[in-house]
């Protein structure tokens, strides 16, 4: 299926954007789309190894020596289990490994199918992050999941697992399509305080604010600037209202929204920046231009000083 190779091409491109330069490949059928995509990615250096346990230790050493995250690919079933010793070592040694484990689709799990086992979050507490990518996941979801995996590997310092489900046929018949160009996501390193961006009368969308300090800082910012805004009920602040036209610039403070209509509206707004101090993707519509991992209260406090 063309969707398989397109999705895997996008995964490899996002890995490169996140600083990955080496990928270690293990033999198998189910991982064919990942293997082919890795080989045809000009910016990756593929390394082939016949044994998963040895391959995982090779990747571990490569990550330590290069001081970069290294990707590791295997097929489905017990092949995944052979990564476990090196994953435990990577977790203890704070070494960034990105495990791309190929998996059977849901209809072939828990039914006695060959080379099928429960691979979802297989490495438990040894993995900094783990998720399963459905066989029909859009390319945008694959890119977002890969960016999140890379962020956790690099900034939470350790192994992560992106479990990729594939249906047959793994590749289209005949020649493969050319590598498609997809936008990649920048990684969001943890930063304390505010950034130096200039905000010119943005429309502010406020999500959940779990702490009193954050609620006070956002309320003070809105009062000091007079910026138009709308707040989700979880913010603890007065709601406000969405404008009749799409704003030129939206500043989203906080991540979680319970208002379905507000989420849908935000998804239609292109130039949106999210500020939230949590790792990983907090954009339910996957449509924001950028996400800044900043101390939200400090960010608001600094903006108040600038507008004072």
User: What is the annotated CATH architecture of the largest domain?
Assistant: 3-Layer(aba) Sandwich
CATH class of the largest domain: Alpha Beta
Average the pLDDT over all residues and give the rounded result: 91
Q: What structural class results from the helix and strand content?
A: alpha/beta
Name given to the CATH homologous superfamily of the largest domain: Thiamin diphosphate (ThDP)-binding fold, Pyr/PP domains
Number of helices: 8
CATH topology of the largest domain, by name, is: Rossmann fold
Shape: elongated
Order of helices and strands: HEHEHEHEEHEEHEEHEEH
Percent strand? 15-25%
The main pleated sheet reads as: 6 strands, parallel
Low-confidence blocks of residues: none
The domain tally reads 2
Intertermini distance: 57 Å
Query: Measured on Cα atoms, how large is the radius of gyration?
Result: 21 Å
In which order are the strands of the major sheet placed? 2-1-3-4-6-5
Proportion of helical residues: 25-40%
Beta strand count: 11
List its traits:
308 residues, alpha/beta, 5-stranded parallel beta sheet, 8 helices, Rossmann fold, 6-stranded parallel beta sheet, single chain, 2 domains, 32% helix, elongated
List the helices and strands and how they pair.
Blueprint lengths: L1 H16 L4 E4 L6 H8 L5 E4 L3 H15 L3 E5 L9 H9 L4 E7 L25 E5 L5 H17 L4 E6 L37 E4 L5 H14 L3 E3 L18 E4 L6 H8 L4 E4 L14 E3 L3 H11 L2
Parallel strand pairs: 1-2, 1-3, 3-4, 4-6, 5-6, 7-8, 7-9, 9-10, 10-11
Helix pairs in contact: 1-2, 1-5, 3-4, 6-8
């Amino acid at each position: 299926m063309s969707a398989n190779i397109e999705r895997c091409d996008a995964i490899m491109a996002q890995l490169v954007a996140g600083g990955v330069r080496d990928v270690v490949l293990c033999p198998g059928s189910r991982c064919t789309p990942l293997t082919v995509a890795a080989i045809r990615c000009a910016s990756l250096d593929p390394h082939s190894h016949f044994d998963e346990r040895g391959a995982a230790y090779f990747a571990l050493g490569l990550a330590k020596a290069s001081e970069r995250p290294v990707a590791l690919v295997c097929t489905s079933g017990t092949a995944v289990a052979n990564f476990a010793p090196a994953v435990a070592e990577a977790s203890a040694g704070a070494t960034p490994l990105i495990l791309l484990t190929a998996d059977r689709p849901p209809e072939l799990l828990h039914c006695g199918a060959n080379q099928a086992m429960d691979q979802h979050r297989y490495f438990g507490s040894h993995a900094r992050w783990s998720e399963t990518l459905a066989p029909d996941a859009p390319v945008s979801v694959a890119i977002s999941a890969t960016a999140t995996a890379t962020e956790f590997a690099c900034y939470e310092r350790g192994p992560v697992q992106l479990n990729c489900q594939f249906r047959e046929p793994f590749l289209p018949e005949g020649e493969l399509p050319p590598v498609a160009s997809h936008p990649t996501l920048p990684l969001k390193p943890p930063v304390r305080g505010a950034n130096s961006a200039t905000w010119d009368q943005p429309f502010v969308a406020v999500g959940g604010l779990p702490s009193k300090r954050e609620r006070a800082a956002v309320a003070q910012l809105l009062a000091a600037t007079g910026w138009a805004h709308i707040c989700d009920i979880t913010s603890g602040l007065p709601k406000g209202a969405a404008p009749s036209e799409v704003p030129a610039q939206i500043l989203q403070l906080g991540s979680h929204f319970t208002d379905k209509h507000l989420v849908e509206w935000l998804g239609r707004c292109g130039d949106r920046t999210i500020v939230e101090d949590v790792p990983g993707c907090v954009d339910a519509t996957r449509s924001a231009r950028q996400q800044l991992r900043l101390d939200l209260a400090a960010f608001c406090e600094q903006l108040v000083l600038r507008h004072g």
